[in-house]
Amino acid sequence: MNRFSDTREESNRLQIVIDEKVKSSGKAMSLKRKFHEIRRLFRHQTIQFIAFAFVILCVVFLLATLGDSPEERAGEHLSHVRGGRSNYNPISDNGELPGSEDPETVLKDSLGNFEPAEEIDAGTPGELGKPVQIDAGLPEVKRAFSEFGFNTHVSDMISMNRSLPDVRMDQCKYWHYPEDLPTASVVIAFHNEGWSPLLRTVHSVLKRSDPRYLKEIILVDDFSDKEHLKDKLDNYVQQFNGIVKVIRNKEREGLIRTRTIGAMAAKAEVVIFLDAHCEVNRNWLVPLLAPIRRNRFLEKL
Ligand SMILES: [Mn+2]
């Protein structure tokens, strides 16, 4: 009996001890969690603070940079160009192309050194870019539109070497350019292009480019299936004594890969891509080559 009550008491006491232990451990856990929560919050705020400070620093840096006078910035960047130092940076931060001030490309009172003779109206359709009036309901016109997307029937009526109006600003005629220019390869990619638009593109480049700088015209055929772009084209370009070349893709590649194939085959120093149904106008090439020449000259400094 005594022993029993002793054991009971013992067991009761044990229960209390356990309860207290559980209680105290629960208290300790909630404290620990709180501590963690505070720490996490603090950490979060620290990150926020650091991010905020970083943004402020960026703004300060930007303001300081923008605050520089143009002379200061020119001194930092363009002096490398003009002074000819080896750490030349091709892109100045004010967006100006370093070659844009070419002392050898000059505006004078006299007509430019590459100005060609005036183009004259030969009296045939489309001369000087004049519109050709035709009945849009003609079956040939409808067929041309459905096959090529534009009126190749009219294009076929126009001379391959037709004259064009001078659409430039008047000032363009008075610019003088250096003559030691790089050579150019003109790459023309096409797929099932109409005959006369394609060949007029070629003729216009040949007619209006100084032969000193036009090394070649590369026609890249992106797997056309039209009959006029096969042997007929190969035979036609033979009259140009090798200046006009034809490359053919063995499968359809798409415009950009076709242009790339043309560029890989190009032998000149500069590659120019043209659409297959356009015409270049007078003195088109030299103003494109002169800044490249200038840029290459600066690079060598
Ligand atoms: Mn086009």
Topology:
Layout: H1 2-66, H2 70-82, E1 106-107, H3 139-148, H4 152-157, E2 175-176, E3 184-190, H5 195-208, E4 214-221, H6 231-237, E5 244-248, H7 255-265, E6 270-274, H8 286-300
Parallel strand pairs: 3-4, 3-6, 4-5
Antiparallel strand pairs: 1-2
Bound molecules: manganese (II) ion (MN).
What is the class of the domain at 179-300 in the CATH system? Alpha Beta
Morphology: extended
Q: What portion of residues belong to β-strands?
A: 5-15%
**What share of residues is helical?**
40-55%
Give the name of the CATH architecture of the domain at 179-300: Alpha-Beta Complex
Please give the radius of gyration in angstroms.
38 Å
Q: Strand tally, please?
A: 6
Structural class: alpha/beta
**Which stretches are poorly predicted, pLDDT < 50 over at least 5 residues?**
74-87
Distance between the termini: 112 Å
CATH topology of the domain at 179-300: Spore Coat Polysaccharide Biosynthesis Protein SpsA, Chain A
**Element-level helix/strand string:** HHEHHEEHEHEHEH
Distinct helical segment count: 8
- Mind telling me the CATH superfamily name of the domain at 179-300? Spore Coat Polysaccharide Biosynthesis Protein SpsA, Chain A
> Overall pLDDT, averaged?
85
Strand order of the largest sheet: 5-4-3-6
Detailed description of the structure:
By secondary structure, the protein is of the alpha/beta class. It has a domain at 179-300: Spore Coat Polysaccharide Biosynthesis Protein SpsA, Chain A (Alpha-Beta Complex), CATH 3.90.550. 47% of the residues lie in helices and 10% in strands. A four-stranded parallel beta sheet has the order 5-4-3-6, sandwiched between helices. It has a two-stranded antiparallel ribbon with strand order 1-2. Helix 5 (195-208) links the parallel strand 3 (184-190) and strand 4. It is extended. The termini are far apart. Bound molecules: manganese (II) ion (MN). The site of manganese (II) ion has 2 residues, from loops.
